[in-house]
Structures are given as C-alpha cells and as structure tokens.
Amino acid sequence: MKKLFFFSVLLFSQIIARENPFEAITQPNIDTHIDKDAQEKVFQDFDFKLPSTARILKSVKIVYQNIDGSVEEQELPVNKSIDWHYPLTINQKDAKINENTDYVSAEKIIFFTKDNKLYITTNRKLERNFILPEPFRIILDLEKDASDSDRTIPLNQKYFSNITLTKYNNFYRAAITLDGHYKYTIHKTDDGYQIILE
C-alpha cells in the first residue's frame, strides 16, 4: 500500500511539474529545414531608409541561415556618418545569374559547368561519391581505364575551382574542389552524371 501511494505521488508531481503534460517533451527544431522558397530566390539587393533623426550608422546586424539549417547572426561595425535623405542599400556583388559556361575534356571525360551545376559526360560507372573538407571537395570514384593519367584541371568558375584526376589501382578519382561549403546531389543522365550544388 505504501509503495502504491509513493508511486502515485511521484507520478502526480511529474504531471503538475510541466505546464502542459500532454505536450511533447522535445520541441521540433524548425531551423533544421531550409526554406525551399528562399532557396529559389537569389538575393541581389535590398534598400531601406532610416528616420530623419539618424546621423551615424553604428553597425549592421545580419541574421543568416547555415547549410545545416541553424540560424546565426553577425554584427558588423560601421561607425560612419550618413545622410538620412538617401536610402541605404545592401547588395551582393556579382550575384546576378549569368550564362557563363566552360567545357573541359580529359581522359575521355567531358566536364561542363553552368551556374551551380557540373555536367560530366562519360561512359564510366560511378563507384562511389563522398565529401572531403579543407578544401571542400566532392570525390567521385569512377571506373578505371587503361590510359588514365594524373592531372589537374583549373576551372576558376563560381562554385567550381578545379578538378584533380588521380589514377588508383582499382578506380579513377575525380576530386572536384568547390569555392565554399555546399550540399550536393548527383543525378544519372543519359550521357553521364549531373552534380547540383545548393
């Protein structure tokens, strides 16, 4: 009887200890999912105007979302005089999407870049793919050919810096160096593969 009473008191205290006993203990982390609408819109510029009392811009605070969904903020000091009559503009240089492309051929493989996409034309089978950090690289292990040789292909494109091709005993490795950290997906196409960065 004493044990039953003790258990009842313990259970009751746990229920009243929480504001809503029927609410889940863990809350979903809403920041772990990237906003798909925001992903499809490329930021170019943003204008805003300060009130007529403003004279010195002390700092600018930027709130941004990381690739893993976490949200952080950064305050940038300015401390300069402004004329409140004119709007202030935040813009991202060279953010406009252009049609610049680049074709490179090596070891019977054609690499073609366009914006955030890399097209790889090849008949080789893709054995595996993974990421290596510092510098951030997408690694593709492809089926080996007898004529393969080591070489580095400079791309110097937005998103894609260069491709290093290395011959191993059982496979041919393409290390695609990126200019930053991205999520990526690989799709099989009729004539090879397509890598899309996010």
Verbal overview:
The protein has 2 domains: 42-91, no CATH class; 101-197, Immunoglobulin-like, CATH 2.60.40. The protein has 2 helices and 14 strands. The protein has helices at 2-17, 36-40, and strands spanning 45-48, 56-65, 71-81, 88-91, 101-106, 109-114, 117-121, 126-132, 137-142, 151-154, 160-167, 172-178, 184-189, 192-197. The strands form 4 sheets. The protein has a 5-stranded antiparallel sheet with strand order 5-6-7-14-13, with no helix packed on it. It has a 5-stranded antiparallel sheet with strand order 8-9-12-11-10, with no helix packed on it. The chain is elongated, with a radius of gyration of 27 Å.
CATH level-two architecture of the largest domain = Sandwich
Number of DSSP E strands? 14
For the residues shown, what is the average pLDDT?
Answer: 79
Rg: 27 Å
Question: What low-confidence regions span 5 or more consecutive residues with pLDDT below 50?
Answer: 3-7, 20-32, 94-99
Structural class assignment: mainly beta
Largest sheet descriptor: 5 strands, antiparallel
**Total helical elements:** 2
List keywords for this structure.
198 residues, mainly beta, Immunoglobulin-like, five-stranded antiparallel beta sheet, 2 helices, 11% helix
Q: Concise description?
A:
With 198 residues, the chain is mostly beta strands. 11% of the residues lie in helices and 45% in strands.
